[in-house]
Design goal:
Layout (H helix, E strand, L loop, with lengths): L6 E6 L6 H8 L6 E3 L3 E2 L14 E2 L2 H9 L3 E7 L2 E6 H9 L3 E5 L2 H11 L3 E7 L3 H11 L4 H15 L7 E4 L3 H16 L4 H14 L1
Parallel strand pairs: 1-7, 1-8, 2-7, 3-4, 8-9
Antiparallel strand pairs: 3-6, 5-6
Helix pairs in contact: 1-7, 5-6
The structure holds guanosine-5'-monophosphate.
The site of guanosine-5'-monophosphate has 16 residues, from strand 5, strand 6 and helix 4.
């Protein structure tokens, strides 16, 4: 994929880690961003809207999109499909924006493999497993069975933190937001491989 001048910031971490809260804290300070809206087959939750939190589609529609190669990446998470559509991401990158993904570890692997030179990845975690349990139960948006599945998933995801550039432990919101703000600003400054090559070539010519 050829992307002109934008950059990618991947945020992963268990549901309940506070990814969206942290992102909302830093959005005003990190310049022009495009927050990628994923497509999912999971049922809509109370308080969510189609086209804002996700594009909610049927499994049939999702599979159609897979066949038509619409996704930059997709994964089966917690019993549902989730995917990132390619087109709006390309558009935002071309416009020089910082594209922010909230995707799972499988998605991070694909994005890093495909666009590693412009991608910065961050894993956001609650301080402990018991804190995660507390947050998920407090949220009261999911049935116990769903919460149990998410906790099981979180235990697996935690094992793959080393695949990320950064780990943020979201214990103190303000402190965690400060770290994420710094990372997001630096993510923009990542130089794609082709630009480095061009710089080297020109630099040698000038000398
Ligand atoms: P939730 O159902 O709580 O909104 O999200 C469940 C999980 O799916 C989270 O870990 C979230 O990061 C992940 N997720 C959301 N959208 C995508 C996507 O487009 N691709 C991938 N790979 N994971 C996603």
């Amino acid at each position: 994929m050829n992307c002109d001048s934008g950059a990618i910031l991947v945020l992963s971490g268990p549901s309940g880690a506070g990814k969206s809260t942290l992102l909302n804290e830093i959005i005003p300070d990190i310049g022009e961003c495009y927050f990628s809206i994923s497509t999912t087959t999971r049922p809509i939750r109370e308080g969510e809207s189609h086209g804002i939190h996700y594009y909610f589609v049927s499994e049939e529609e999702f599979k159609q999109d897979i066949e038509e190669e619409m996704f930059l990446e997709y994964a089966y998470v917690h019993g549902n499909y989730y995917g990132t559509s390619m087109k709006p991401v390309k558009r935002a990158l071309k416009a020089g924006k910082l594209v922010v993904f909230d995707i799972d570890v499988q998605g991070n692997t694909v994005v890093t493999n495909r666009l590693g030179d412009i991608t910065t990845s961050v894993f956001i975690s609650p301080p402990t497993l018991s804190e995660l349990k507390k947050r998920l139960e407090h949220r009261q948006t999911d049935a116990q069975e769903v919460i149990d599945r998410r906790i099981k998933m979180a235990k697996k995801e935690i094992q793959r933190i080393s695949e990320y550039d950064y780990l943020i432990i979201n214990d103190d919101l303000e402190e965690a937001a400060n770290v994420l703000r710094t990372i997001a600003k630096a993510a923009r400054l990542k130089i794609p491989g082709n630009e480095i090559n061009e710089f080297t070539r020109k630099w040698e010519d000038i000398d």
